[in-house]
TrEMBL record:
UniProt family annotation: Belongs to the aldehyde dehydrogenase family.
InterPro entries tied to this protein: Ald_DH/histidinol_DH (IPR016161), Ald_DH_C (IPR016163), Ald_DH_CS_GLU (IPR029510), Ald_DH_N (IPR016162), Aldehyde_DH_dom (IPR015590)
Protein source organism: Pantoea coffeiphila
Designated name of the protein: NAD-dependent phenylacetaldehyde dehydrogenase
Statement: the UniProt record of this protein carries the keyword Transmembrane helix: yes
Residues of the active site: 268
Domain Aldehyde dehydrogenase, first and last residues per copy: 35-491
Classification of source organism: Bacteria, Pseudomonadati, Pseudomonadota, Gammaproteobacteria, Enterobacterales
TM segment ranges: 160-178
Pfam family, one: Aldedh
Length: 495
């Protein structure tokens, strides 16, 4: 099958001196150069300057100035129109953005186009549609009237100010757009901090935003070491809110830093998501469901399932068909059009997953398929099937964030439900059955921010998304995001 040819625009972009995007301009900055590694080859494809305290000050000052000036002076509909123009520009540059994303993250080119860029565009348009639709309320006031005077009160929603958005490496455009678009449509401005592993795509998106007319300072991108820049950004006096997507330990540090200063924080963190298959599903339906829930993008989706609960009587047959299906997937360069298994996103992640598989063996789990890297350059790891015998196995408790499905047999649905809820996480889950009565009842009992029925991992901009327990707080999408990016101002009058 054909290998995608690198666009001239991508080659030219990679050659540039990269750093940050501040106040409407690409600004390399003077920090140490960090290599960007293509995970499919292990080769360096670009270099990006790390940011420092001066870059943080410059980005925050630019964002604050835009927040108080050009962005707040623009009508809400004009803001929405700019967001729509950016969506159009991203669509026009779809292939370019997809190729840059695949180079940095190893995502297959098909997923970079169809999921990363197309979904980012869809979410951006959804949020743009909220422009002019963010309302307060009027209210009766019950104060006594001595001389015929009357009262009226109303609330209005005010933007919080400069929002710091901290982004992981798994969907470097789409997750950045979730945060950026929610902030912008509420009237906030943003400073985005991409992952060290995927620093390039949002630099390109920010340039497109400047090209379509976003005022300087509305969208800023700051690259570099999260451990250094994160606290500086959150503690900066102009930071009004932080919205973070990433791992639980980093999320806790972010939450603590924000709460110490009484700043609001939205935390979208990791999970150990469960998929419960009831015995009325056929073997092939179960296998289709498992492939959808656990193995897309090599499992590097926060909502992917990693714990699978199967009826004991069907377990062995399901796993044998699943292994057949997985063994037929094409392992290839993510730039091959028909690649189905690309590399993991970075070396550190591969090493973490290899360690977790080693621990699974110590726990007595059976690695039935995969569990190792195939012989080829880059950070590849085969889709893996593990039969576990206890809910206490490491693989049933800790997130791999990779293509490692852990399968536990159950005899009793009630017990399976208890095991699903016996987890520190609560991001997502799914129930698979033709018995809708049970599906709805079980969805009510499963402790997770989202429960899918006969589907898994699909997100829609109209449906709020976010975790409970250690998986975080706050909700993105729907109308729920409005609370997180605005504050209520009350006004009372006498007449
Ligand atoms: P990570 O926590 O290592 O890094 C996330 C971001 O935080 C990066 O930009 C990093 O530079 C920055 N960072 C690091 N230290 C920081 C600090 N002290 N203060 C502020 N920022 C800091 O996560 P990752 O490895 O990039 O992403 C994988 C994780 O993200 C997985 O656990 C996955 O489940 C989670 N995730 C969750 C969701 C969700 O919506 N719930 C979505 C995608 C990914």
């Amino acid at each position: 099958m054909t290998q995608v040819k690198q666009l001239a625009a991508v080659s030219a972009f990679l050659q540039r001196d990269h750093g940050h995007f501040i106040n409407g301009l690409s600004q390399p900055g003077g920090g140490a150069l960090r290599p960007v590694i293509d995970p499919a080859t292990g080769n360096e494809v670009a270099r990006v300057h790390d940011g420092c305290a001066e870059d943080v000050s410059a980005a925050m000052a630019a964002a604050q100035q835009a927040f108080l000036g050009s962005w707040s002076e623009m009508s809400t509909l004009a803001r929405g129109n700019l967001m729509l123009k950016l969506a159009d520009a991203m669509e026009q540059h779809r292939e370019e953005l997809a190729q840059i994303e695949t180079l940095c993250s190893g995502k297959t080119i098909a997923l970079s186009r169809g999921l990363e860029v197309d979904q980012a565009v869809a979410f951006l348009r959804y949020f743009a549609g909220w422009a002019g639709k963010i309302y307060g309320e009027t209210t009766e006031i019950s104060l006594p009237s001595f001389n015929g005077e009357k009262y009226r009160g109303f609330t209005q929603r005010e933007p919080l100010g400069v929002v710091v958005g901290i982004i992981p490496w798994n969907f470097s455009i789409m997750i950045a757009i979730w945060k950026m678009a929610a902030a912008l449509v509420c009237g906030c401005t943003v400073v985005l901090k991409p992952s060290e592993f995927t620093p390039l795509t949002m630099l390109r998106v920010a340039q497109l935003a400047a090209d379509v007319g976003f005022p300087p300072g509305t969208i800023n991108v700051l690259n570099g070491n999260g451990g250094l820049l994160g606290p500086l950004l959150i503690e900066h006096p102009f930071c009004a809110k932080v919205t973070f997507t990433g791992s639980v330990p980093t999320g806790r540090a972010v939450g603590n830093a924000a709460s110490a200063l009484a700043k609001p924080a939205t935390l979208e963190l990791g999970g150990k998501n469960a998929a419960l298959f009831l015995a009325d599903m056929s073997v092939s339906e179960m296998v289709d469901g498992i492939m959808e829930a656990g193995y897309v993008n090599q499992g590097q989706i926060c909502a992917s399932a990693e714990r699978f609960y199967l009826p004991a009587e069907k377990m062995d047959e399901v796993l044998s068909v699943l292994i057949q299906r997985l063994s037929q997937l094409k392992v290839a360069s993510p730039f091959e059009e028909d690649c189905q298994v690309g590399p993991l996103a970075n070396k550190a992640h591969l090493e973490k997953i290899l360690k977790m598989v080693a621990r699974a063996k110590e726990d007595g789990d059976e690695i039935l398929y995969g569990g190792y890297s195939p012989e080829r350059p880059g950070y590849y790891f085969l889709p893996t099937v593990v039969k576990v015998h206890s809910e206490n196995s490491t693989l049933m408790r800790e997130e791999t964030f990779g293509p490692v499905g852990s399968f536990l047999a159950y005899d009793d649905e009630e017990k399976a439900l208890q095991q699903i809820n016996n987890s520190p996480f609560g991001l997502a889950a799914s129930v698979w059955t033709h018995n809708f009565n049970k599906a709805i009842r079980y969805s009510e009992r499963i402790q997770a921010g989202i429960v899918w029925i006969n589907m898994h991992t699909f997100l829609d901009p109209a449906l709020p998304f976010g975790g409970i327990k250690s998986s975080g707080n706050g909700r993105e999408f729907g109308s729920a995001f409005i609370n997180d990016y605005t504050r209520l101002k009350s006004v009372m009058m006498r007449y």
